[in-house]
Amino acid sequence: METPGSYVPRLIDDVLAARMRAFGAVVIEGPKWCGKTWTATRFANSAAWIADPTSDYAIRRMAVADPFSLLETEKPVLLDEWQDAPGLWDAVRMAVDKAPGAGQYLLTGSATPREGVTSHSGTGRIARVQMWPMSSVESGVSSGAVSLRRLMAAEPPKAAMGTLSETGLIEAILRGGWPGSIGSALDDALALPRAYLEAVAHVDASRIDSARRDPVRLTALLGSLARNTATVVTNTTLVRDMATAADTGVSTKTATDYLDVLRRLHVLHEIPAWSPALRSPVRLRHSPKRMLVDPSLAAAGVYASPQTLAADRKTLGLLFENLCLRDLSVYASAIDAAVWHYRDEAGLEADAIVQSQDGRWIAVEIKLGPAQEDAAAASLVALSRKMASGGERLPAALVVVVGPGGFAHQREDGVIVVPIEMLGP
After folding, report:
1. What is the rounded CA–CA span in Å between residue 128 and residue 27?
2. Helix H or strand E segment including 161
3. How large is the average pLDDT for residues 373-397?
4. CA within 20 to 30 Å of 414's CA: 144, 180, 225, 398, which one?
5. Integer CA distances (angstroms), 55 to 51, 62, 68, 100, in order
6. How many whole angstroms from its chain centre is CA 252?
7. Residue 52, helix vs strand vs coil
8. Helix locations, 228-311, DSSP H
9. Could you tell me which of 42, 92, 89, 57 has the C-alpha nearest to residue 72?
10. Whole-angstrom Cα distance, residue 246 to residue 213?
11. What domains lie within the chain, and their CATH numbers?
12. Quick one: pLDDT band at residue 359, thresholds 50, 70, 90?
């Protein structure tokens, strides 16, 4: 199949190729408009477009009536928006069982069905790959000169001055990582995340399982998540904000359901708490850090503009952390690592912990301005000492990611400073 000529290479391309070599089928999951279909077409020789409205959704009706009929074309077969016909999952799993072989099917989905909709998990047959909106490297905001892989190998970067302006950072946050916004005017790009949140609240959240959900409450929940993005915000806070906006009581059960829907739509991402070891003596707090999947959505949720962000550094700092955590998540997935956060009962914390499969890890603090560098470095050094005193594995690196005005270097205390415009996989 042909990929659109404007396709921008994605970091997930290599990950997807590796999974296609190892599994009979691969499902690409991620939010709408992040580029799943464009990426999948690079690996497919045929496709079934389940959401195609042609002939009264004839392909979807065929997928429901006889899912195996869509698997008989030239492989690899792309099944786009497979969740609209969940029976395709079990059909693919059975097809791989009957005719083993790698790289036969690709499934893309912008919503995850509820547990139990499919009869089998697909373990061993279907690999899951998470796709995000574009990172700063993919969208051209970052040069990628400082490699996360090399930081994990304890290799400090060469000293280099950053050139990103605060205006440039604000534009990167507001524009976000949506492929459809590449090359468009900023005013036009701002319309996309606003329309995205409106569609989630008024259409997608109810369409996902045909259960009606109040768009006023959903809009309030999205706004609360946006105001508290990249923080350990509690359900109590979210329920209170939903109730205030809806001018009525909101139960915890309702809030839990709405949060689950946003997870299944891949709009809400939760970064789990990290523990240094299974039997660590360190007393931890285990609440996840919640963030919207792209900083542009958080910006839209608080009605941010270039002017308001330039005047409100606290909000800009939260949105900057959202951007950095998105980028770290994309880069970590490209090197087979995972992103966590750390917070213990003594108040010591790290904005992100990036850990590889072999147990190596780095601790990251995210600070908008270089003036906050010293405090961030001191916190990271304290964390490293705490791990040493507890007999835990020491970090491969301690990293402060900064915004405009910073420069890449290793401090005398060993902490590495990296401007976001230089960070890459």
Report:
1. 5
2. strand 160-161
3. 95
4. 144
5. 11, 11, 20, 34
6. 25
7. coil
8. 235-246, 252-264, 295-301, 306-311
9. 92
10. 13
11. 12-130 (3.40.50.300), 136-424 (no CATH)
12. very high
